[in-house]
Amino acid sequence: MNATDLTDRVAVVTGGASGIGRASAAALAEAGAKVIVADYSLLSENDEPFSTLKIEQQVCDVRSERELKKLMDHAASLTGRIDILVNNAGIGMVKQIDNVSEDDWDACIGTNVKAAFFGCKHAIRHMTSDGLGGSIVNVSSNAGILPRAHDPVYSISKLALSGLTKSLALCHSKDRIRINGVCPGPVGGTRMIESEIDIADDRDAAIKRLIAASPAAQAHGRMIEVDEVAQAVLYLASDAAIMITGTLIAIDGGKSLGVPPQ
Q1: 154 part of the active site
Q2: Residue range 110-121, pLDDT digits in tens
Q3: Which CATH number describes the domain made up of 10-185+226-251?
Q4: Phi, psi of 66 (to 5 degrees)
Q5: At 206, which helix (H) or strand (E)?
Q6: Domain boundaries, the chain
Q7: Catalytic residue (choose from 35, 154, 165, 207)
């Protein structure tokens, strides 16, 4: 039996129009899941590949509990339950505390923490109705393992998301619901990293700095790839990880280990 076979399972992926979310949605669909991708801004470039994989697209502002409830209720209407939720939607914020406004704080915490909390709340209702449970994967960051000096609000949000992952995993293990997290480092081809690179004075130098921050990435001469994170999401979502809950998997090229060798 293939433990990563997700045939007939329903999966919801937030922030699924690009980057890690899009790669995760594709990996889940290729494993047999019926996938609903939610994003505040859908991309026409996904129409053809998503159609081929039978991935459904829904517009959703994840900072709204009402919209998240509507999304989860719709997903559950397909088969009567939700089997998998990937809380991937997130934003970055490279600002020191003196430059952080209340709107900045609300945007970052709302997208990175509030959305995951209420996404879990409304997905869990559809995982407990028949006793079969389910799997939730929260996409955190290596900043969710160790804080970083250049983006304190982002670090706060991801440390909170890591705590949320562990707390809810403990609360809902009795319901056969597994809740885990992946903690990527700099991942190429994502909106977050591309926006950081775009504002840099020297694009090539910015990419080199990102690679140099992770010892394994430096050794391979490249950033982490979205598919590498997606494979970890697939594993945690599947029965191959049926006894894993409350775990954070760092996919950061060793960035969270400490100062890399020179």
Answers
A1: yes
A2: 999 999 999 999
A3: 3.40.50.720
A4: -60, -45
A5: helix 203-212
A6: 10-185+226-251, 187-223
A7: 154
